[in-house]
Structure formats: C-alpha cells, structure tokens
Amino acid sequence: MSETEMSAPSAKENPYAVLRNRDFFRYLIGRFVASLGQQMLVVAIDWELYERTHSALPLAFVGLSLMIPMILCTLPAGHCADTFSRKKIILISTFILALSSVGLTLLSAWQAPVAWIYVCLFIIGAARTFLWPASAAFVTSLVPREQLARAVTFTSGTFQISSVVGPAACGFVIILAHNTAWAVYALNAAAALICFGLVWQIKHIHKVKTPEPMTVSSLVEGFRFVFQNKIILGTLTLDLFAVLLGGAVTLLPIYAKDIFERGPDGLSWLRDAMPIGAVICAFVIAHREPLEKAGRTMLWCVAIFGAATIAMGCIIIPTAGWFWLACLLLAIAGAVDQISVVVRQTLVQILTPDEKRGRVSAVNSLFIGTSNELGGFRSGAVAWLFATPSMLGNSAATGAIISTVTGGIGTILVVLAVAWIWSDIRKYGKLA
C-alpha cells in the first residue's frame, strides 16, 4: 500500500468514504452477489433433499459434507493465502464454486442419485475453505487501516442482507421452476461468475514478501500465533462458545409450529429477524465513529445476546403479541451479534501481521464454521434429550425451551469467564 493511500483522509469524515475505493466496491458487490447465490443454494439443497427422500437424515449429512473438507483443508488454505496471490485464490475458488453449481443443476434436472449431491457439496466446502481466509486477508490490502472497521461493517452487512433476501428469493425461484431446484443452482452458478468478473477487475496484486515452504511448522503457524496472542485467542474463544451454546436457529421450526402455532410464514419471520437486526445495526455502525472501548463493548454485546436468547426461550404463550416479541428479541440478538462480528473480524486483521493473515483467517473461519455446525447439533441434541411432555402439551416444545434457556445461560457464563481469563480484552480501546 502506497504512502499516498495511507495518508488518505480518515473515513470518519464520511461513513461512505470507503465505498469510493473502486477496488473495494467491486469486491463488496461481487461478494454480495455470490453470498446471495449461496444463501439460495443452501435452502434449495435442504428443500430438494427432503422433497426427494422425505427423511430428516439426509439433511444432517449436508452440514457434515460441508464441515469435513473445512477441517481437512483449513491448514493448507491458510498457508496458500499467505504464500500465493490472494486474488488468484479467490478467482480459482469462485470458479470452482460456479462449476459445482453447474454440476448440481445437471444432477437436479436429471434426478441423479442423491449421493452425487453430497460429492458436489464436498467440493463446495473445500472451495469455500480456501476462499474465506484469502477473502478476509484480501480486504485489509484494499483499504487503509483507518477504514478497515467500516469495510468489515459493510462486508458483514451485505452478507446479512443476502441472508434475508436469499431464502425468500429461493422459494420464489423454486415456484417459478415448477417446484424444482435446478434453477436455483443455475442462478448460483451465474452469481459466482459475476463475482469472478468483478474480482478479476480489481487492480490490486498481493505480493508475498518471503514465501514460506509448506512445512508442518508453517501450516500450524496460524494456530501458534492465535494461541500466543491473548486478545485474538480470547475473542475467538468467546465467539466459538457463544455460538455453540447460544445459537437457537436450529430450533426455530419448533418454535414456529409447536409453540407459536404458526405455519411457514411464522418460520420465515423468525429466521429473518436476526439478519434484519444485523442489517439495521450495520447501517448504524457505519454512521458512527469507530468504537472507543471495543473490547468491553464486544463482551457486553455477547452478554446481551445470551440474555435475549434466555428471554426468547421463556416465551410459551402462542399469541400474536408474544410472537412479535420473540421476533424483536431475535432482532436484538442479531444486532448485538453484528457488533461482535465487526469487532472480532477487525481485531483479527489489525493484530495479525500481513504475512500471517491468511493462516490466522483460516483458523478464524474454522472456529466460526465448526461452532455454527456444532451449535446446531447441540441445540437439537439437548432439545431431543429433554423432549418430555409438560404443561405445554408438546414434548418437542419443552425440549426446545430448555435447550434455548440453558444455552443463553451458558453464553453469559462464557462472557464472564473470558472477561476474567483474558482481561486484556476488557482493556482494549479504539477499534482503528
């Protein structure tokens, strides 16, 4: 990055100044289009598998098919992001995602055996594992350091928008395609190619200062750095256990059907509440100065996330007023989670030397990915374990409530533990 770029006016003069950066703007639009396609694809995969098999077990293998390549490829993905051109890694990974979507399109149109769908999902999981650390580290080279927090805010905000629009768009496309999913896969392939074209136009070239050979030591450097840096380790640990314990998204179908006695529309509102809260929060953050007490703010936000989860779990009255209160609580959880995400991602990039950002970002992606999948498993397992009839008259509802409330309590306990063990997080100041 040139001295001229580093001395550019601070983004605090205009919250949208970072969007004037053509390279970052191309990247942002490209990632939004690609994320929108991916959100549609995830919903379409679940819909098609259940439609073809009428069993919940094939749905469980979706997360497994995506998580296994993540575990296998995290170390080499991080090494590649620090050794080779990050732009080229993004382009290659995006092109592989497009080809995989083309494969899913053909498999769906020809009604090929379901096993082939998992093969495509495995390839998608591997490509995403290489894409994520390269993308996270790539952003830091596109914008000056003083604009990084807002760049992360806009990047995360566009992802949340895609999380709101994607599922609804998927349902609309499936209906237009006569209840078949092939059109969604085709659109995702097109979205990946659009992203490819936009990233291709970015002029920035990542030059590795001193390429390292692929050794065991270089592969595990990301983990070594994370465990040596107390703030990064504490931040990632906080996110890992907060999502593992506090995530209740997996249980929302039970809340919609068995607690609030609503249909698919109720589930849609519950699913969209968190990303809607996150989008609103991202808009507010973009218009404010960088956080002055970032560490303490992050801890409070995760604690509020846990409290909102507990309150959500305590709602057992199936009336419209209580339903919308549940939606509001989920929106609050999404808003404070957005603040936590911005702080965490910015800290990881700021506190990591450029030559290690790929490997550390890969560790960050592994923490996030596994916590999401395992968090869903924990929620479902606890709900199943405590699924006994009660005054609610429904065993599934009882289990869901116990799972949600205990998860929220666990999240608050994790906040207290992290604040005590890694006191440096409480003291961290301005996020810039």
Give descriptors for this structure.
Growth Hormone, Chain: A, 2 domains, 432 residues, 78% helix
User: What amount of the residues lies in strands?
Assistant: under 5%
Could you describe the largest sheet, including whether it forms a barrel?
Answer: none
Helical residue percent band: over 70%
DSSP helical segment count: 17
**Count of separate structural domains:** 2
Structure description:
The chain is an all-alpha fold and 432 residues long. The chain folds into 2 domains: 11-202, Growth Hormone, Chain: A, CATH 1.20.1250; 220-432, Growth Hormone, Chain: A, CATH 1.20.1250.20. It is built from 17 helices and no strands. The chain has helices spanning 3-6, 22-53, 57-83, 86-110, 114-140, 148-176, 182-200, 216-219, 221-228, 230-246, 252-259, 264-286, 294-313, 320-350, 357-385, 395-421, 423-427. Residues 1-12 have low confidence and may be disordered.
